[in-house]
Amino acid sequence: MKNIVIKDERNYKVVSGNAVSILDKLPPAIFEVSFDPDKGFSLNEADSFFRNSEKLYGEVKTRTEKVLHSFDIVEGNLGVLFSGPKGLGKSLTVRNICKEALKKGLPVILVKEHFENITTFIETIVQPSIVVIDEFEKMYQVECKTKKDDLDDQDSLLSLFDSSLESKKLFLLTCNDVRRISRYLLNRPGRLHYHFRVNRLSIDEITEYCKDKLTEEKHSLIPEICSIGARISDFSYDMLRAMVFELNTYQCDLAEARRILNIEAQAESPFSFTVYFQSGKTETGFDDIDVSISRHHIDWYTHNNNWRERAIANMLEAKWTGDADGSLLLDGMHIIWTPGDNKNKDKIMKVVFVPVKDGYLANGNNY
After folding, report:
1. For 288-308, what is each residue's pLDDT tens digit?
2. Of 240, 268, 274, whose CA–CA distance to 254 is shortest?
3. Closest CA relative to residue 173, chosen from 205, 138, 129, 135
4. Residue 17, SS3?
5. Quick check: is 168 in a domain?
6. What pLDDT digit, counting tens, does each position of 153-180 carry?
7. 113 near 47, Cβ under 8 Å?
8. Residue 214 structural domain
């Protein structure tokens, strides 16, 4: 077999003759960026990126179609940020976008290490491509200065997201903590066009997953699992998988599974709520509810005179209503006015709490 000697400046490499192909562009495949101080940047195929094939739940398909359609019709680069805690499907959505992009003939480039001069290398790839940087805020830290121009790591990449490259790129970034994203990237749709915030699983996602994965005789537990998911602000697929595993494998009840699993409802969970009165009027509010305590003060401002009202809710008696939004229902028997307030003339009939899925945890805004 004939060998071929490849010379690149002062570097030589001997390879088998049938192992070399001269291509005018990258094929539709998954590549990882690597760097050698002597040889510079290169791309290596990475088949393991799609090792796990999972059913798609929630908005993965919808977001995939939107991102790829927008990339098809925009003239320049398109940046997309997926933010939220671990285990909520950010990486799954990115992988699905990449799978569909491969079908369109687009190569996918994974940046899995911190490279100071990655911008220059990406600019040399002169064809439409997908560039993925997972856990972006950890790999390129906003607090860390670069040696070249004393810019923050993330800010040194702004020109990459801004630039009109010879061929446009779709940048897919994920982050767990949006507070560690540069202020020059947030609220800048010219750089990151989309920001998909994922903070908790929806009741629809929990229900569908349980119907698929739980043994049929355990399906009666789905409403209770949904209620747990509504109460925990960062309820994730990791938590859900662990519950389903215990229930299926050891035939235990949900109380026993919760007792031994590493799942705690200690953090405050954000809810919008509506108070329904006997007279027919309603009041609305927003609160961070500590689901680990038995009683909770809920406060709202009345529609008529903006007067602050307060009642006490027995959160341990909250019941899941079965609605797709994951509402928690407290009837009037479990809601009382603050002691000393003379408001019993208009009795509270019920309070419905709806867990906030997007927005609040991601950007700190109170609805």
Report:
1. 877 667 788 888 888 777 788
2. 240
3. 135
4. helix
5. yes
6. 788 788 888 866 667 999 999 999 888 9
7. no
8. 203-260
